[in-house]
Specification:
Length: 105
């Protein structure tokens, strides 16, 4: 099982959209950290010092993620996260039948 980080991207804050609000709050460069399982995702988040409150949930596994600023992305890669192209990774999850989370207890 694996934890993944996609490439850093730059957001240009315009208006009062959620993306603009996030860019003003956290800086305008970040990426996403995902994993094969939620347990692995949260374990890596703990390891690199992320708060659980920053977790962004979804019924799609590849949409469950943490946003990482450049320094946290570097920490995740040093801790073993694999660098991926997010679109290719999502396609692979769908192809493998692992895109949708099973019901959580």
């Amino acid at each position: 099982m694996t934890v993944y980080v996609d490439g850093l991207f730059t957001a240009t804050p315009q208006g009062d959209t959620p993306l603009a609000q996030q860019a003003r709050r956290n800086g305008n460069r970040w990426c996403h950290m995902t994993a094969d399982t939620l347990d692995e995702l949260h374990a890596m988040a703990d390891k690199i010092g992320l708060r659980r409150a920053w977790f962004q949930s979804s019924h799609l596994l590849h949409h469950c993620h943490y946003d990482l600023v450049p320094s946290k992305r570097t920490a995740a890669v040093r801790a073993g996260a694999v660098e991926v192209n997010s679109r290719e990774h999502a396609r692979q999850l769908h192809a493998d039948g692992r895109a949708v989370l099973e019901a959580q207890p």
